[in-house]
Structure formats: structure tokens, C-alpha cells
UniProtKB/TrEMBL annotation:
Name of the featured protein: ABC transporter ATP-binding protein
Coiled-coil portions: none
Lineage summary: Bacteria, Deltaproteobacteria, Candidatus Acidulodesulfobacterales, Candidatus Acidulodesulfobacterium
Signal peptide coordinates: none
Gene Ontology, cellular component aspect: membrane
InterPro entries named among the record's database cross-references: AAA+_ATPase (IPR003593), ABC_SmlMolc_Importer (IPR050093), ABC_transporter-like_ATP-bd (IPR003439), ABC_transpr_FbpC (IPR015853), Mo/tungstate-bd_C_term_dom (IPR008995), P-loop_NTPase (IPR027417)
All copies of domain ABC transporter, residue ranges: 4-240
UniProt KW keywords: ATP-binding, Cell membrane, Ion transport, Iron, Iron transport, Membrane, Nucleotide-binding, Transport
GO molecular function annotation: ABC-type ferric iron transporter activity; ATP binding; ATP hydrolysis activity
Gene3D superfamilies xrefs: P-loop containing nucleotide triphosphate hydrolases
SUPFAM superfamilies linked to this entry: MOP-like, P-loop containing nucleoside triphosphate hydrolases
Length: 381
């Protein structure tokens, strides 16, 4: 069920166009994310939704009704900023309870001190901040302050919570905890949430659906893993930090056998081919890009017989760098035709396979993991 509908929203500041025809839907009870670079209008869109900024054109619909003419306090959409913005003269308990006193929804309004006390304590327990009631904002950590800010939003029982870069000021440990907390709250309360972020990890860890905002427009949308693996355009691919981007020309299309064959243009030899599952509306001799995620490339083991999926699209190459990240080994392989492949594997696998810089290895690109992206202008052989 659609809770929030954004229809053809435009917004400019002076001569600068910030949002140009934004359309998106938020489902009830789900977490959605707007992903994009800083300065692309993500925060502006949130402020339009909650009524802080007025759009130039377009409609905001909540539960099927326009909220364009409503004041911010009438919209039942609460904005949680990257900075907690707590009242310095109020303690934690008072900061949280303050929100309930401003609620405009009389059916939901907590109208006596006894109920306020009960609700505030319940929310503090839910967010794991009991024991902080009498502390002031300058006496708690940034992670705790963000939880207090979220508690203040929850106490008014909004239809949707809007979060503007909620993890940008948190250290990695606090960020992980608050992400889990938000997911738990969503699962328990079934409250809709919309967050904006430039960190793809936020999207992957939290969201049911993502939207890519770039140059004032929504350029891609869908389930995060689908968008990450199969971006609809090169703009979206670059924005997502897609690696393993190659150029090629469609040399064969076989719908009967679910196959597309592409001549690889990367590298010096230019005579290598890859095969992928049939997809999209492509033509013979059409120039395309194709991408594959680093974790989808398989380094073959010499001591084991390969199964069918890893017999596809073989390349031989040399490991030119291997970097240990927080969770995986990031390996760069230069193939025989000078194409470069980035591969991610667990550190344990790196050790078991006795991999090292300078070693020659064989890799396989799974057909099902290769995604083709159209170019604007086809070329002919």
C-alpha cells in the first residue's frame, strides 16, 4: 500500500534547478532510501515533504490525500537531522517528552502527564537509552544523542519518519548499532521511514527500496541489491561506484538458448569474447557497456574440478595487487589481453588458495552475473 506519493516535484533556488520532475512512491511500513552525491537535492526533497520548504510545482500525497497546503506540524511527517538538535536546557527525558506536547493529531495526542511519562519511558526502553533521563545533551555521546532525537520523533507517532544523513556524524561502532536499532524499530512498529544518504552501506543494510537522485532527477530505483548489480545507466553505475566496467560490441544474440555474446573492446588484443544470459533489447553490432560485481568473479582453484557455473567466461591473469579491507581481500588482476578485473574474496579463501601478488590465476565471470548497459550511440563493425 502506498503511504507517500511524490508527484512531479520541481524546486529551484534563484537560477539553480535543484529538483526537476521528481516522482517516487513510499510503501507503508517499509524503509526507503534516496541515494546520491552531496548537493544533489536529497535534503531539499525531505524538507519539501515535511513542509519546511515549499515546492515550485508538484504534489505531495499522504495516504492518498494532498498535504501541500498543510503546515509542517500538521503533516505527520517528522524530520530527523544529521545533527540531533536537542534542546540544551532540557534533559533527555524532557527532550523526548517535548515532542508529544506539540502533536497536532488529537486522536494520537498524549494529553496528560501520566501518559506522557509512560510513553516516554517505553520509547526510551525501546531505544536502549534508559538511565539517561536526567542527563543533558552535552553529557551524552553522539550516538546516544541520535537515539534521543529518534525517540523524540517516535513519541508523536508519525505516519513517516524522514532521516537526513542520520549516521554521518557517528563512528563505525555507533553507526552499526544505530542501523540495527532502526531496523529493529521498523520491524516492531511497522513505521515507514525515508532516509537520504551518500553511503551505499546505509542503503544495503536498511532499505527495502532505493532511489538514485542525480542531476535533479530519479535515475534508477528498485531493490538495493538489484540496482547495485544491474544499474539502468552508466550514470547510475558510476554513482554507485561500480567497478569492472567494460566496453564491447554485441556479436551474437541467441534467444532460443538464452545467450548474448559480446566482443570485448578493453585490452590490447581486442579478440576476447564473453557470454551472458539474454537480456534487454539489443542488436547485433551494437556497442554496449557491461558490468560485473567484484564478488561475482570467481578465482578458480587448481586443486579442484570446476562446476558448470565456473566454466563460463574464463580469463587468465596475474595478481598485481591484493589489499586487505575490513572484511574482504580486494584483488586486482591483469588478464592476458590487458583487461583489469577487481575481485573480492574472503581473507580465509585468499590464504587457503595461497594467493599472492605476482601469482598467475584463472578467473571465471558467471554469465548470470553480467549486466549489459546500453550506449547512447551504437557503432557498426
Amino acid at each position: 500500500m502506498k503511504l507517500l506519493e511524490i508527484k512531479n516535484i520541481y524546486k529551484s533556488f534563484s537560477d539553480k534547478k535543484v529538483l526537476t520532475g521528481i516522482n517516487l512512491d513510499i510503501e507503508s511500513g517499509e524503509i526507503s532510501s534516496i541515494f546520491g552525491y552531496s548537493g544533489e537535492g536529497k535534503s531539499t526533497l525531505l524538507k519539501i515533504i515535511c513542509g519546511i520548504i515549499k515546492q515550485d510545482n508538484g504534489d505531495i500525497m499522504l495516504n492518498g490525500k494532498s498535504i501541500n497546503s498543510l503546515e509542517p506540524y500538521e503533516r505527520h511527517a517528522v524530520l530527523v537531522m544529521d545533527e540531533p538538535l536537542l534542546f540544551p536546557h532540557m534533559n533527555v527525558f524532557e527532550n523526548i517528552a517535548f515532542g508529544s506536547k506539540l502533536s497536532s493529531n488529537k486522536k494520537r495526542h498524549i494529553n496528560n502527564n501520566r501518559n506522557i511519562l509512560k510513553s516516554t519511558k517505553e520509547i526510551m526502553e525501546l531505544l536502549g537509552i534508559t538511565g539517561l533521563e536526567k542527563r543533558y545533551p552535552d553529557e551524552i555521546s553522539m550516538g546516544q544523542a541520535q537515539r534521543v532525537s529518534l525517540a523524540r520523533a517516535l513519541i508523536v507517532n508519525p505516519e513517516i519518519i524522514l532521516m537526513d544523513e542520520p549516521f554521518s556524524n557517528l563512528d563505525i561502532i555507533s553507526k552499526t548499532k544505530v542501523r540495527k536499532l532502526i531496523k529493529d524499530i521498523n520491524n516492531e512498529l511497522k513505521i515507514s521511514m525515508l532516509l537520504v544518504t551518500h553511503d551505499i552501506e546505509d542503503v544495503l543494510n536498511l532499505s527495502n527500496k532505493m532511489f538514485i537522485l542525480n542531476n535533479g532527477k530519479i535515475q534508477d530505483s528498485g531493490k538495493p541489491k538489484d540496482v547495485l548489480k544491474k544499474p539502468s545507466s552508466m550514470d547510475a553505475a558510476f554513482l554507485l561506484g561500480t567497478e569492472n566496467i567494460f566496453e564491447g560490441i554485441i556479436s551474437e544474440i541467441d534467444k532460443k538458448n538464452n545467450l548474448i555474446k559480446i566482443k570485448l573492446l578493453n585490452g590490447k588484443q581486442g579478440n576476447s569474447y564473453i557470454e551472458t544470459d539474454f537480456q534487454g533489447d539489443f542488436e547485433i553490432n551494437e556497442q554496449v557497456f557491461f558490468v560485473i560485481r567484484p564478488e561475482e568473479i570467481i578465482i578458480l582453484r587448481d586443486d579442484r574440478q570446476t562446476s558448470k557455473p565456473v566454466k563460463e567466461n574464463h580469463f587468465s591473469g596475474r595478481i598485481i595487487s591484493a589489499v586487505f579491507t575490513s572484511r574482504m581481500m580486494e584483488i586486482l588482476i591483469s588478464s592476458e589481453n590487458d583487461s583489469m578485473f577487481k575481485v573480492l574474496i574472503p581473507f580465509h579463501a585468499y590464504e587457503v588458495m595461497n594467493l599472492f601478488e605476482g601469482k598467475t590465476v584463472n578467473i571465471s565471470l558467471k554469465k548470470s552475473a553480467i549486466h549489459i548497459i546500453k550506449k547512447k550511440k551504437p557503432i557498426r563493425l
